[in-house]
């Protein structure tokens, strides 16, 4: 089955679908800092570099599915929480515009859990209704999932919308995963060596990295960062990998940060040298990108942004596999019913 991808970013969602047997034939991404990374890691996919606002629906290829994660900053609990009033929140409407025009068999949209906050309830219901009524309409399934349950070594709550075109006659059912919990030990323990601090002004070390992208952002830590413990132990799962490098979790070699008083913590005195941010490659591992997926950037912050904004590959793969399975099972069942009816009337 062929799919097209919007707000593709580096392509974590796309890679998960590719690994599940889908063909990602076309993708759309507006951020020029990402283009090289996407194109070199997805050489078989045509990359459209316009804003979705400027993409006419008739220039989007015919497809079986549309996938994407409309920008989440406007819904984020850490942001201004303007929701649909923010122009970035309104990009949901362009996603639906193209969905309505193309009428694929299914769609998947991913977003942050912040959109479930009460202040966004009316906007969320409006979006859900627009999904249901797009074209001939879609049977909508909607659930908040935690990536930690999907073979991803990270606490990461996200909202997933899956729609099945109504004429297919069934509704997607979220499947319960049955994976053992992956830890930081499982994910990054073999990357203890060869890590490099970024160059001056957090420029990349480039080809000097023995392991591609195994470099970390340097510089101070904000009072907001220091207000909470940012260290998870080797036997725990990572905190959420965020899009900002300065907010990257601390490497598990460090002891948990010392509590001073409410909203104030410090690095354990005498152990300060152990407190470094996870490297770009370590963050990629936590997001379940394979090591042969190379991120291209000049400033290391762009690497963290690409990874933090991505859908974890293993989560995407699980969802893609269940969508594919349910569509194929439905097609088989429909064919059985047609054959049975033909035999009865013969």
From TrEMBL:
Keyword Transferase: yes
EC number in record: 2.1.1.37
Superkingdom of the organism of origin: Bacteria
Membrane-spanning residues: none
Key words, A-Z: Methyltransferase, Restriction system, S-adenosyl-L-methionine, Transferase
A Pfam family annotated for this UniProt entry: DNA_methylase
Catalytic activity: a 2'-deoxycytidine in DNA + S-adenosyl-L-methionine = a 5-methyl-2'-deoxycytidine in DNA + S-adenosyl-L-homocysteine + H(+)
Catalytic residue positions: 72
GO biological process: DNA restriction-modification system; methylation; negative regulation of gene expression via chromosomal CpG island methylation
GO molecular function: DNA (cytosine-5-)-methyltransferase activity; DNA binding
Family from the record: Belongs to the class I-like SAM-binding methyltransferase superfamily. C5-methyltransferase family.
Protein's UniProt name: Cytosine-specific methyltransferase
């Amino acid at each position: 089955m062929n799919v097209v991808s919007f707000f593709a970013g580096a392509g974590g969602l796309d890679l998960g679908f590719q690994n599940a047997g889908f063909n990602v034939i076309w993708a759309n991404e507006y951020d020029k800092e990402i283009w090289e990374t996407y194109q070199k890691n997805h050489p078989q996919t045509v990359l459209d570099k316009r804003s979705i606002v400027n993409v006419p629906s008739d220039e989007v290829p015919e497809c079986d599915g549309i996938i994407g994660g409309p920008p989440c900053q406007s819904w984020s609990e850490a942001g201004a929480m303007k929701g649909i009033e923010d122009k970035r929140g309104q990009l949901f409407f362009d996603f639906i515009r193209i969905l309505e025009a193309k009428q694929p068999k299914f769609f998947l949209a991913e977003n942050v859990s912040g959109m479930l906050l009460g202040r966004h309830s009316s906007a969320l219901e409006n979006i859900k209704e627009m999904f249901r009524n797009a074209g001939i309409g879609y049977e909508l399934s909607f659930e908040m999932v935690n990536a930690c349950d999907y073979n991803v070594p990270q606490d990461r709550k996200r909202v997933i919308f899956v729609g099945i075109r109504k004429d297919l006659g069934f509704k997607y059912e979220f499947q319960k995963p049955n994976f053992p919990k992956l830890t930081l030990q499982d994910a990054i323990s073999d990357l203890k060596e060869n890590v490099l601090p970024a160059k001056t002004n957090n420029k990349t070390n480039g080809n000097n990295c023995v392991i591609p992208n195994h470099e970390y952002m340097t510089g101070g830590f904000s009072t907001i960062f220091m207000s909470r413990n940012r260290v998870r132990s080797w036997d725990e799962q990572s905190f959420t990998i965020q899009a900002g490098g300065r907010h990257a979790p601390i490497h598990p070699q460090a002891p948990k940060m010392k509590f001073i008083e409410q909203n104030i913590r410090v690095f354990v005195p005498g152990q300060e040298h152990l407190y470094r941010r996870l490297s770009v490659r370590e963050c990629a591992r936590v997001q379940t990108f394979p090591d042969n997926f190379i991120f291209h950037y000049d400033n290391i912050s762009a690497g963290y942004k690409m990874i933090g904004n991505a859908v974890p590959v293993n989560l995407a793969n699980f969802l893609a596999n269940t969508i594919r399975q349910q569509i194929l099972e439905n097609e088989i069942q429909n064919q059985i019913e047609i054959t049975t009816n033909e035999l009865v009337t013969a």
